[in-house]
Amino acid sequence: MYVPARGPGGPTTPGTLLEVTGLRVVADGALSGPEVVLDGVDLRVAPGECIGVVGESGSGKSLAVRAVVGLLPDGTRTDGGSVRLRDQEILDLPPAARQARRGRGVALLMQNPFTMLHPQLTCGSQIADGLRPGAPGGPAVSGRRVRRAAERAEVARRLAEVGLAPETADRYPHELSGGMRQRVAVAAALAGDPDLLIADEPTTALDAANQRAVLGLLRRLQAGRGMGLVLITHDLRVAFSACDRVYVLYAGAVLEQGSPAELESDPRHPYTAGLLAAEPSVHERLPRLPAIAGSVPAPGRRPDGCPFADRCPHAAPVCATPGVLLRPLPHVPAPAAEGHQRLSACVRLAEIADRPGALKGGAPLPAAGPAKAAPADGAPAPVSGDPAVRTAAAPVPALLLEGVYRTFRSGAVRQAAARGVSLTVPQGRVTALVGESGSGKTTLARIAVGLETFDEGRVEVGGVALAPGRRPGHGERVRLAGQAQIVFQDPYSSLPPLRTVEATMREALAAAGQIRGASRRERAEWTRDRIGELLTQTGLPAGCATRRPAALSGGERQRVAVARALAVRPRLLVCDEVVSALDVSVQAQLLNLLTDLQRAEGFAVLFITHDLGVARQIADEVAVMYRGELVEQGAAADVLDRPRHAWTRRMLAALPPAAVGRPGPAIGPLGPGEQPLQ
Amino acid sequence: MTPPRSPGPGPANRPAPQRPWHVRLGAALPLRYVLRRLAGTAGLLAVLSAAVFALLRVAPGDPARTLLGTRSATPQALAAVRADHHLDDPVAEQYGRWLADALHGRLGTSIRTGQDVTAVLGDRLALSAQLVLLGFAVAVALGLPLGVLAGLRARRPADRAVQSLAVVTLSTPVFAGGLVLIYVFSLMLGWLPAYGPGSGGGGDRLLHLVLPAATLGLSVTAVLVKLTRAAVVRELAREHVTFALARGIPTRRVLIRYVLRGTVVPVSTGIGLVLAYLLAGTVMVEQVFALPGLGQLLVGSVTFKDVPVVQAEALLIAALVCLANLTTDLVHPLADPRLRTAAATAPADRDKGQA
Ligand SMILES: Nc1ncnc2c1ncn2[C@@H]1O[C@H](COP(=O)(O)OP(=O)(O)O)[C@@H](O)[C@H]1O
Ligand code: SF4
Ligand SMILES: [Mg+2]
Q1: Taking the model in full, what pTM does it have?
Q2: Which of A420, A409, A452 has the alpha carbon at shortest distance from A574?
Q3: How many domains is chain A built from?
Q4: Around Cβ A139, how many Cβ atoms within 10 Å?
Q5: Does the beta carbon of B351 lie under 8 angstroms from any beta carbon of chain A?
Q6: Is residue A431 a part of any domain in this protein?
Q7: Is the CB of A348 under 6 A from ligand 2?
Q8: Membrane-crossing residues (chain B) (predicted)?
Q9: What CATH number did the domain enclosing A461 receive?
Q10: What is the Cα–Cα distance from A568 to B105, expressed in whole angstroms?
Q11: Which residues of A touch B258 (CB under 8 A)?
């Protein structure tokens, strides 16, 4: 079968719950006029089916689903296409009729459990608001007290459905943890018993344990209710582990469609292959992660023809011909189940699929052991080989923690964030600190750079000893700043929003007292040169210097944060979850950048992450933290291949197969000698 | 579609009956919090009273001369005033005595008229209070609905119209606005009296206060309109509003329960501020409409350097503003559970989003 015709009015397949055909969304920019954000998106969901929509942020996933439920944000509107819900076109319906359909026909669960619930209403009342009239507990039952009691009973039943205690009904959202809030939101979204639930990044804001739990919950509810489920995510592992069918969305267009198994083992679009390859494996450290260069183009700056062309390593002139459509794969016989057809939008598929190593089955890149990873192209080799020898030669470690304790008190609650932690980060090496959220990793990182006090123990940062129980004074802070710098998880909040990149960096240089030069002019010149050098080093265009954070993408902001930290040439760089807010392709770029910089400059890194694959990719040594204690420590390969502590074993066992079984580099679109067409 | 199959309320999952209202009120407004706010207000008043007391001392010239006013400053008279007001005692002692007197309602005698200040204030307080309350009613009755309307219709004609009107009222000086109202409603239409407090009972007083109250209220309505509009626009853009719509809650209900609910805290803060503006506004309005209220008294006393009266008035206004402030502080935790100080049950696990 060929792709469904674009535009409304195409025949619907019987038994389809949701059919989106050629959906177009435009944004009316204030200056630039209308810009096409979604350019013909096709999606189909059968009753009881779970489909996934994956793609980097900015691909248009959220806008697509908000267009489906008819709640596009201000400034955007649908501009053609068709959305049929149970064989009825809903784009033409008047607003009131659409509102009546929400909640029963389709409900949308949004990403952020911290903003999705009303802070001033109890959880129970927010669930009750969505109950259908006529349903038990719905507003149709007569008698106020009877109705109230019935409603409370129904809310308790709904809470039990998502695994929460009935008392939760009287709680306000801020009294609950993120995972619990997300469960309340799920119960609220299901209150009207929708045929179709659309979940937009439901697990992105949660930690790993809660991610798995909420995902499992959604799947269970979907199966139990026979409901359709659309799962939006930027995380391939999530989509592959939960969905029956996956759509790969990029820059407003669907590029590939297939089952998780097919997409994973046999991607049929360079973009999918690139995403898969960029995912770090927990079993193997690559000299470089095959990252997709560049970033998702903004709506106004997409290339004609294939939207992926400016990042695609296989791009050729033919790719620029407009009208790149999702089409069935050549050479692949149409399967029996029509819904499981493989589709790909790559026009050169026939040519590149035959090239060995292009999309599948290529020879893996040479694997490298963690300690002697091959130097990246052009980067100098690590300072020395054997860690023991180097430690003897440089007896002052970059960071030394000995028996560090830190307990937080809030009211009567005492929370031990660090319980006798002893950790040494040797000079010039990368140590990963892994552990679930709340295990005390961030506290330790903040202690190491003097942002947090500790109760007892010994902390030395490159020979600068910190005193327990108080914050470092001004002089100490200046010395500390020259030794250790930190980069935080959230690139959106860690840079001052009103300052240009240049001003931010100048400030960092001044704070460590490192600006050189005799005269004012000399100093200004020196600063400018140094900033230019840093921007080049971190792969940022020179034009960045005069921009403010809002004008940068997430990946660029994180690069700026790295550049700022490295401005003062610290001996220790502390990275606190620096890649966990980034897309996998940008994450790979940043990990490569950090590896290159570390090898070139030879500083030590304390890299905090909850992602074991990331730890494997970046670290020489791994330390595992669990409930405030360091439970395991050793060479990365030892800890991750032969874990001894139960928690490490459990984490490794819980990894979805996508991160484990896949031969990492086999499907890399960027071979060693291949450069993307820019 | 298939009905949902969710587990029934088992024994472990029976809903507890909702707690009675006084328990919930106690949880929302713990006694400790109320007491702390009261103590804070008292402290603030103490500081303000010290400032008011200092008025006399920092006024240029000899305090004794100031207190003598227009009477001839013979050495004997000066000495008498000094003794009377204990001007030779240490300043702290003077302040203590003055404060104790003020707390007992003894605010001294007016320099200008020789009357007891408490009595002078008492007459005028009633009139000014009526004026402020009516003006407040006008501002709230106009400002809130118009602000909500503008917010809901943001960037559309209705919004533009409301905003333009708001700018006009905001940029019209009170005396000009008052004169326009007098011209239209008293002179042209003859519906309402133009000035004076009226001589008859309540009805007559009310008639006489309509124009002054409208003038006073309109002068601050724009502030409320803008505040309310901004709050509504902000609330409309919240993700929880989209989520409420996305799960099928009727639009009206979403507007009232989700959008307006969220505006209570910012708008009530604004209302508290507006009350303070209204008190200050009486000065001008009472001049324009020839109302013998506190505002007029203040103007007279300041021009006449009638320090005891000015002090008493300043103290009264400070107390009222503090009271308005206290009320907002007590309303906030009722409106927004996040502002409650009672240590909530600590979340069991922390998440990435917060860390
Ligand atoms: N309200 C809006 N007005 C204009 N453009 C928007 C708006 N919201 C999103 N966009 C644009 O639409 C594109 C897709 O955004 P979004 O759907 O949020 O992507 P995703 O959910 O895949 O991260 C982005 O390039 C973004 O700039
Ligand atoms: S080969 Fe051409 S059509 Fe295929 S993904 Fe690359 S740029 Fe797009
Ligand atoms: Mg999104």
Answers
A1: 0.79
A2: A452
A3: 1
A4: 13
A5: yes
A6: yes
A7: yes
A8: 38-59, 131-152, 164-186, 206-225, 258-280
A9: 3.40.50.300
A10: 66
A11: 118, 121
For the record, the structure tokens of B167 come out as 């700018």
In contact, A37 and A26? CB cutoff 8 Å: yes
Q: What residues have CB less than 8 Å from A115, skipping those under 6 apart?
A: B238, B239, B240
Going across the sheet that includes A253-258, the strands are A106-109, A196-200, A228-233, A50-54, A245-250, A253-258, A343-344, A327-328
Which superfamily is assigned to B34-62+85-342 in CATH? Answer: MetI-like (1.10.3720.10)
- Judge if the beta carbon of residue A251 lies within 6 A of ligand 2: no
Top mean-pLDDT range of A29-38, A77-86, B102-111, B292-301: A77-86
* Element containing residue B241 per DSSP (H, E): helix B239-246
Using CA atoms, how far apart are residues A35 and A24, in angstroms rounded to an integer?
11
**Does B336 lie at the interface with A, CB-CB under 8 angstroms?**
yes
Q: Is the CB of A131 under 6 A from ligand 1?
A: no
Please name which of A658, A676, A550 lies closest in space to residue A277, comparing C-alpha atoms: A658
Of A69, A110, A438, the CB nearest to B349: A438
Tell me how close the Cα of B267 comes to any Cα of chain A, in angstroms. Answer: 15
Q: Do B15 and A119 touch (CB under 8 A)?
A: no
The tens digit of pLDDT for each residue in A155-214 reads: 999 999 999 999 999 999 988 888 899 999 999 999 999 999 999 989 887 777 788 889
Structure tokens at A11: 């025949």
Whether residue A299 has its Cβ less than 6 Å from ligand 1? yes
Chain B CB within 8 Å of residue A137 CB:
no
Closest CA to A260 of A277, A278, A237, A283: A237
Q: Are B261 and A205 within 8 A, CB to CB?
A: no
The answer to whether residue A469 is domain-embedded is yes
Whether residue B17 and residue A177 make contact (CB cut-off 8 A), yes or no, is no
List of chain A residues whose C-beta atoms are within 8 Å of the C-beta of residue B335? 120
Which one, of A121, A660, A597, A630, lies nearest residue B258 by Cα?
A: A121
Question: Cα–Cα distance between A180 and A186 in angstroms, integer?
Answer: 10
Burial string for A84-109 (b: 16+ CB within 10 Å, else e) reads: bbbeeebbebeeeebbebbbbbbbbb
Asked, for residue A147, whether it belongs to a domain, the answer is no
Ligand 3: distance of its center to the CA of B239 in Å?
Answer: 12
Nearest CA in chain B to A169: B15
Q: Which residue has the tokens 């409309």?
A: B236
A94 touches chain B (CB under 8 A): no
**Domain range spanning residue A569?**
397-496+561-653
How high is the ipTM of this complex? 0.78
- B323: number of Cβ within 10 Å: 13
Asked whether residue A105 is assigned to any structural domain, the reply reads no
